[in-house]
Amino acid sequence: MVPNNNLAGAEQERFLFWRLFFSFFRIGAFTIGGGYAMLPLIEREVVVGRRWLDEEQFLDTTAVAQSTPGVLAINMALYVGYRVAGLPGAAVAALGAGLPSFLIITAIATFLPRFREYAVVTSFFEGAQPAVVALLFGAAYSTGRKALKGRKQAMVAVAGLLAVLWLKLDPILVILAGGAAGAIWLKPGAEAGKQGGAKGAGSP
Amino acid sequence: MPVVLELFLTFFRISLFTIGGGYAMIPLFQKELVTVHGWITAEQMLDMLTVAEMTPGPIAINLATYAGYHAAGFWGALAATAGLVTPSGIIILLIARFLKHFQDMPVVRAVLQGIRPMVVVLIAVAALSVAGSALHGPAAAAILLAALVAAVRFKTHPILLIIVAGVLGVIFEI
Questions:
Q1: In angstroms, what CA-CA distances link B118 with A36, A100, A159, A182, B27?
Q2: How far apart are CA A144 and CA A123, in angstroms?
Q3: Which of A77, A89, A166, B159 has the fewest other C-beta atoms within 10 Å?
């Protein structure tokens, strides 16, 4: 485990849990717009501020978090929390990361229906919806630029497109098929050199 | 099966099969929440996406909490969110404990190389399917194009895009 500050024993432990919670609560509360946006904040908090990890460990953590299923920010919180303070640390960090969302959304979900039919609110949403769709297309585009670097990847994508649109395959099956295709067909090595996949830290 | 349990299991499954962050979950959310379970309508999905983009925290958690709340109140929200984070909990902790170089394993990298293109496709198809509801008219189309350019070319922050678009909606539609 990474050594930290100067207090001793149990006192250190207790403060550690609080610090983990607050750090990730703050990260969760001040990032808007999605998991990847949180990475710089996590870095600032965990590497620079608290010094729980060094830069290389942070990059490792990012790589793991991006290579595993689930919410990116939660994966990061769990991993950092575990490295700092074991299982309880992981739980506390994840709780901190998720709590702001949970509280705010629950509040909004409670009150929004009352205001949703107001003309102003309706107009706002009508304007915002196309922007949200644009963000989705944008996400597809920027993910595509990174993910479709080789011809094989592009072929997998085309096969996936056919599966979704024509065969109406369930998204989960499409993902599993992609993973299988990757394991069988997209071995790293020659491919990795081409796309810079061997650059380490698992950059997507 | 009680709705709360169904919510937990559904979001557990969604989380288990998504790699690549919040946007990658949106297609699965759509399939499960709108089509399979009918907990929300397509229009409501768009609403929730809008709110989820504007509020702090990971998009996926925002969506899960919102959808869960809509389906079954506070306990629904809790079940959905818990379902979303549980696979992470199990997998990450197993990896942290036993597989310290998980991300460097060749088979892992290969699998990810295959999954990522699929994720791109799924997001694009999801975008197409909600585009219908969002494009109420020429003004909406103009906003979509402008937002697309702003996001891709100028890397404008999502929340800025949404707020500006919303304000434009108020100014021109009201």
A1: 19, 31, 9, 11, 11
A2: 32
A3: A166
Nearest to B17 by CA among B60, B54, B46: B60
Contacts of A52 in chain B (CB under 8 A): none
Q: Residues A90, A93, A95, A98: is their CA dihedral positive or negative?
A: negative
DSSP B106-143: HHHHHHHHHHHHHHHHHHHHHHHHHHHHH--SHHHHHH
Place B22 in a pLDDT band, splitting at 50, 70 and 90: confident
Euclidean distance between CA atoms B22 and A179, whole angstroms: 18
Query: Is B102 in CB contact (< 8 Å) with chain A?
Result: yes
DSSP string across B55-79? SBS-HHHHHHHHHHHHHHHHHHHHH
Q: Considering only the beta carbons, identify the residue of B54, B113, B124 that sits closest to A153.
A: B113
Q: What are the angstrom distances between the C-alpha of A49 and each of A13, A19, A23, A52, B119?
A: 18, 11, 9, 8, 34
Question: Is there a contact between B140 and A70 if contact means CB atoms under 8 Å apart?
Answer: no
Total residue length of chain A: 204
Type of residue found at B113:
Q
pTM score > 0.80 for this model? yes
Largest CA distance in chain B: 58
What are the tens digits of pLDDT across the range A103-117? 999 999 999 888 888
B62-81: b (≥16 Cβ within 10 Å) or e: bbbbbbbbbbbeeebbbbbb
Nearest to A159 by CA among B109, B19, B121: B121
Contact B165, B143 (CB under 8 A): yes
Residue pairs spanning A and B at CB distance below 8 A: 382
**Amino acid found at B4:** V
